[in-house]
Design brief:
16 strands; 4-stranded antiparallel beta sheet; binds adenosine-5'-diphosphate; 414 residues; binds magnesium ion; Rossmann fold; CBS-domain
Length: 414
Amino acid sequence: MTDDRDIIIKAEGLTLIFGKRKKEALELLNRGYSKTDILKKTRCTIGVNKASFEIKKGEIFVIMGLSGSGKSSLIRCLNRLNEPTDGKVYFKDHNITRETNKQLLHTRRTEMSMVFQKFGLLPHRTILENAAFGLEIRGETREQREEKARIALKTVGLEGYEEQYPRELSGGMQQRVGLARALANDTDVLLMDEAFSALDPLIKSDMQDELLQIQNKLHKTIVFITHDLNEAMKVGDRIAIMKDGVIEQIGTAETILTSPATDYVEAFVERVDRKTIITAETLLFKHPTTVKLGKIGPKGVLHKMREAGLNVLPVVDNLDKFLGYVWLEDMIDLEKRKVQSIESALYSEVPSVLKSYTVEEMLPLITGHHYPLAVVDEEDGRLLGLVTQTSLIIESTRYSKTEMNELIDNANDL
Ligand SMILES: Nc1ncnc2c1ncn2[C@@H]1O[C@H](COP(=O)(O)OP(=O)(O)O)[C@@H](O)[C@H]1O
Ligand SMILES: [Mg+2]
């Protein structure tokens, strides 16, 4: 359960209808008519259809969907650039849907900044003036706003460009100015509507990295809209997938990939590069049979191996810290030679991984040997479980055939 204090934005049954006969359209919507039928009957378009969600303080919440699915309609309801037809939006402790125009203006200027796809720069103003624009509207003194704008420009890597004009900057740099302007406002919330969509792929990727770096430092709450699934997966802490104004699913990239809520979501995420998303945490085999070093001799280990049906077992110390593996042949050999300690047969030079490791990061680690991968706790090295070669191979059967063949060729055992 999330603590209520962690929630910064909350929407309940948020609905936005475009057109003149909104009331009639809303009634039909409540009676279960589809977006297409409502358009036919009332000439009204459903922008957002009963969206309910909570955005947590400090997260990047991605709203993702194809063009026309209602992303812009939705984000613009959050600061009431679109007036919701029905439902509620709470921001911190107040009900945005009830605010007077004056309160709303204050909220927009001091609590949420918006970054647009088309940058929205003023051509006859310098980069510094553009970055300071939000503060100018707020009525801050030139000195104050320029100082904040300089800091923001530095944050986005544009130090030295203060006196230039937008046309002198590339698209990527102009978008940085747009971002700097939002940062200069120093609001808790950033609303970014397809902010990177117009950028070239490489510049886009740089901007994504930069956004994540900035976020690491500033801990904003970011509502980030994109129609690019890979972008959503890369930047989003959680993702809401929209279709026809409806939020089909909200979850982490990994949850959405491993348990899609609807057929639509399943079909949608099929194209995604799973091996960069699925982590050891998902593939983890918990509570494997382990061997405690010093507590058990070769005979005991052989017994455990027979019970578990395995010829290799992980070894841990008293505190469950992962130490390595022991093999069947070695145990038989030790037992024959009446050696009581298994220590001399411990293979300790083996890779281990953290829960956050992706399939892509783990695959190279399984080739060339026969061990499973030990998943250990980041802090104390405790063995949390194993990712077996089998589970990695099965996960990889979801990839393309060529990739798959390469993997099987490389793996030593299944
Ligand atoms: N101002 C408007 N008037 C009428 N219909 C609109 C308006 N803006 C958006 N729509 C419609 O609302 C739906 C959602 O659009 P939009 O929120 O812009 O989608 P997205 O941002 O996901 O591309 C679409 O069917 C679109 O045609
Ligand atoms: Mg849009």
